[in-house]
Amino acid sequence: MIKELAELLGKHGFSLYPQSLRVTEDGTKLFVARRAGQKAVGVLQAQRRLALSSSVLEGVRLSSGDAASLHALTWENYEKLKSVAPIAPSPCDGKASFGTGDRLGLVSAAHLDALSRYPVFPVIAQQSPRELARTRRDFRDVLLDAVMGVLESGCAGPFGADADHIKDEEHLMAGAEAGYSMYTLDVSDWLQDPGASPADQLSQLSRRIISDCAGMELATACGESPEISEEKLLTSALMYEKALEQVKHFHGLLGGVIRNFDLEVSIDESARDTTPEDHLFVAEYLHRSGIDFTSLAPKFPGQFQKGVDYAGDVTALARSLHGHTALCREIGGYRLSLHSGSDKFSIYPLFAEITEGRFHVKTSGTSWLQAVKVIASVDASLFRELYALCLENLDESKKAYHVSITKEQFPAEPPDGLSAFLARPDVRQLFHISYGALLDEKRDQIYDTLHRHEEEHCASVARHIERHLGMLFPG
Predict the structure, then answer these.
(1) What is residue 46's predicted lDDT score, i.e. its pLDDT?
(2) Closest Cα to residue 421, out of 473, 466, 467, 376?
(3) Where are the domains of the chain?
C-alpha cells in the first residue's frame, strides 16, 4: 500500500512520509505528505467518515478502493482528527520529561525520533510569550506544528505541550484555550525585596510555615544535614508570598477551564540562587493552599546561559542539587526542573544521578542553532547575511536574554571555516538570541533553505537532541 500510495501522490507532486501511515480505531488511515515545502494531512477511506476541510488534493483512489485526500492542518481539522487519533497533548505520565522548543515549527518529528529512544516523556510544543512574539506565532500555531510532527513521525505515544514562562492572564488563557497540557508560571515579576517588606504583614499561612519548619534537618544523599533557618525562612516568606498568591490566582483560572494539567513553578529568574528555605517555603505554601504542582525550577549556582555549557563551581552545584532533591523527596509529589538546559553537557550526568532520574529539562534555542548550522553548511552567503543582521540587532536582542556578549568581541565578517566559527560559545549565543531579528528580515530565505535541505536539517536536530539525552541516560 505504501508503495502504491507514494507513486500516486508523486504524480501530483507530493512526497509521502512512509512512517506517517497509521490506522485509527474506526479503520481510517492517516498519513502526511509534502509538496514544495508545505505539509498536508492525508486521509485514506473507502467511505467519507472523516470529513476534513481545506483540501489540497482530492480524487486519488488506490486499487483497494480507498480514496485518498490531502488537507491543510487547520485548527478545525485538528479538532476533527483528535477525535479519531491520539494527537492531543496530555500531562506527563513518567518520572522524567524533556522539553524541545521548536522556534521554526519544522522539527517536531526529529525531536520525537530522538526522544523515542529514551525513557522520557516528550514535551514537543514548548514556547514562551517572548518566543511567540519574536517568531510571529501564537499557541495554536505552535501546537499545530507539533501535531504535524506527531503525525509525520507516526508517533503513537503521548506528548506534552508547555505554555512556557507565563506571566499574564492573556497568555495563560490563550494556552488553555489551545489545550496545552503544561503551564510554566514565571513569578519573577512579583518577587519582593525582603528588606523593604514589613514582616508584620505576612499572612497567617506564612507564619505557620515558618513556625512549623524552622529547625527542620534535611537528610541529603551526600551525607550533609543542613538545618532550615527560621531567619532565612522569614526572608523567603517576605520575598515569595506575593508571587505565590499570583500562582494561586493563575491556578484557579486554569482549574476553571482545564481538568488535568501539569503545573511548573519557575523561580529561577531571580537575582540570587534559590536557598533551601526558599524552596521549602514555596513548596509548603503551594501545597497548603491545595496546589499540587508537578515541577519546580530553582535558580542553581553557576551560569546557565543560552546555547552554551554550564559555567561555575560544580561542587557547589552538586551540593545545591542534593539539597533541592532532598526537599523534593521530603515534601513529595514534584520534580526538579532545569531551565536553559540546552547544551549543559558537562553537568547532565550529575543532574540525572542526584535527582535519581526524576526531572524535567527545557531546551529550545539549541534546535534553532542546528538550523543555523545547516544553513552555514549549504548556503554560506545566506549565513553571512544572517551574521551581519545579528550584529546589527545585538543590543535589541540582548534586552530579552541574560547573556554577557558584546558587539566588540565579534569580527565584522565571519572567517573561513564557518562550522568552527559557529562552534564558538559567543557566536552560538549571538545566534541563539537573534532569531527574532533574523526571522523578521530573512524569514522566507531561512525557510526555503531548510525546506530544500529537510533531511539534513532533521537529522542534525535529532543527533543533537540525542546527544543531550545520552548524557542524561548514560548506558
Answers:
(1) 84
(2) 376
(3) 2-81, 96-365, 366-472
Contact 182, 123 (CB under 8 A): yes
- Please say if 455 is a catalytic residue: no
3-class secondary structure, 192 = coil
336: left (phi over 0), alpha (psi -120 to 50) or beta: beta
What is the third-level CATH fold of 96-365? TIM Barrel (3.20.20)
Distance of CA 330 to the CA centre of its chain: 28
The per-residue pLDDT for range 107-153, each reduced to its tens digit, is: 999 999 999 999 999 999 999 999 999 999 999 999 999 999 999 99
- In the set 131, 145, 262, 264, the catalytic residue is 264
Q: How many CA atoms lie within 13 A of 363 on its CB side?
A: 28
What are the b/e assignments for 66-92, b being 16+ CB within 10 Å? bbbbbbbbeeebbeebeebbebbbbbb
- Cell numbers that stand for 428 in this block: 552560538
- How confident is the prediction for the chain on average, in pLDDT? 96
Q: Exactly one of 164, 241, 277, 284 is catalytic; which is it?
A: 164
Q: What is the DSSP letter of 47?
A: S
Can you tell me the distance from the alpha carbon of 348 to that of 361, in angstroms, rounded to the nearest whole number? 10
Cell of 430: 549571538
Nearest alpha-carbon partner for 443 in 370, 389, 367: 389
pLDDT of residue 224: 83
Nearest to 111 by CA among 74, 176, 159, 58: 159
Q: Supply φ then ψ for residue 49, to 5 degrees.
A: -80, -35
For residues 459 and 34, what is the distance between their CA atoms, to the nearest angstrom?
Answer: 17
Which residues does residue 311 pair with via DSSP β-bridges, in sequence order? 303
Q: Among this protein's residues, is 164 annotated catalytic?
A: yes
47 CB neighbour count, 10 Å cutoff: 10
User: CA-based Rg of the chain, rounded to a whole angstrom?
Assistant: 24
**pTM of the full predicted structure?**
0.97
How many other C-beta atoms can be found within 10 angstroms of the C-beta atom of residue 455?
A: 8
